[in-house]
């Protein structure tokens, strides 16, 4: 599993803080914080979900609402992957970040958020 460092510029300090708050419970996020209008995050993503960060790099405005993004990826993170927090089961129709994966046009190619109950299963909320 690769680690990816994201450094992005948001339109405002408040916007960067909202994105950090929105993604703080994502099971793939190891660290995320706003530093003024700058957003800094570390994602641990399996290869089958790399497309999502590629999309962020290509279209930061569409994907996260950021003005620009720089991504730095390593296949050999120094931090032991065994210590990366594991996702808690999530029983809601939306991912912890608020995304509705059921409406994503890439759903067939994506195994889904590990924090979500299997798609199609009735859920009652977090």
Annotation keywords:
126 residues, alpha+beta, Alpha-Beta Plaits, four-stranded antiparallel beta sheet, 3 helices, disordered C terminus
Q: Give the CATH level 1 class of the domain at 2-76.
A: Alpha Beta
Instruction: Name the CATH superfamily classification of the domain at 2-76.
Output: Lrp/AsnC effector binding domain/regulation of amino acid metabolism (RAM) domain
Which shape, going by the Cα principal axes? globular
Average pLDDT, rounded to a whole number, is 79
Helical fraction equals 10-25%
Low-confidence stretches: 117-126
Give the strand line-up of the largest sheet. Answer: 2-3-1-4
Number of helices: 3
Kindly name the structural category.
Answer: alpha+beta
The CATH architecture of the domain at 2-76: 2-Layer Sandwich
Distance between the termini: 27 Å
Radius of gyration: 14 Å
Total beta-strand segments: 4
| Percentage of β-strand residues | 15-25%
Strand-and-helix sequence, N→C? EHEEHHE
CATH fold-type name of the domain at 2-76: Alpha-Beta Plaits
């Amino acid at each position: 599993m690769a680690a990816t460092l994201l450094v992005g510029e948001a339109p405002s300090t408040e916007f960067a803080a909202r994105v950090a708050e929105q993604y703080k419970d994502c099971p793939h996020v190891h660290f995320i914080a706003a530093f003024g209008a700058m957003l800094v995050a570390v994602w641990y993503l399996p290869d089958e979900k790399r497309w999502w960060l590629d999309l962020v790099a290509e279209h930061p405005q569409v994907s996260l609402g950021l003005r620009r993004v720089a991504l730095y990826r390593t296949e050999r993170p120094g931090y032991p992957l065994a210590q990366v927090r594991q996702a808690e089961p999530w029983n809601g129709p939306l991912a912890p970040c608020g995304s509705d994966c059921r409406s994503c046009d890439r759903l067939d190619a994506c195994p889904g958020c590990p924090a979500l109950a299997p798609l199609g299963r009735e859920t009652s909320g977090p």
